[in-house]
# Entry
Amino acid sequence: MMDPSVLSPALSPEEARMLSPLQLAYVGDAVHALMVRVKLIGDNLKVKDMHISATRAVNAVSQAKALQGCMEMLSEEEQSIVKRGRNAHAHHSAPRSASTQEYANATGLEALLGYLYLTGNFSRLTAISHYLYGEDIPCPPHI
# Structure
C-alpha cells in the first residue's frame, strides 16, 4: 500500500532546498501537468482537445513565457529557487522546439512549482497559477 504522504510530503523549506534543482523541477513538471489537466476537465472539452491544450501549456516555450510574466511577483526566496533551477544543467539537451534559454527558464519555473508543492505551500502555488493563467488552476490534492 502506498504511503499517503507521497501525495503531499510537506517537507520543511530547509529539507526542500537540500534537493537538487533538477529533483525539484522533476516534481514541478508533474505538478504543473496535473494542474493544467485538472483545469481542462472543467472546460468540458473532448479528450483530444484537452490533450492538445495541455501540450500547448506544458512545454518549455510556454513555461518560459509564463515565468517571465511572474518574476516580479516572486519573493526573494522563490526567485532564488527559480535561479537554481535555471542554472541547473540537465544531462540532456533542450528539445528542438525550445532554445537553450527557454528550456533553462522552464526548468526554473518547474523547480519553483516543485518546491512549493513539496513544502505544502498550496496557497502560494494557487496564487502563482492564478497569476500565470488568469484563473485558479486547482492544485494537486493534498492529504
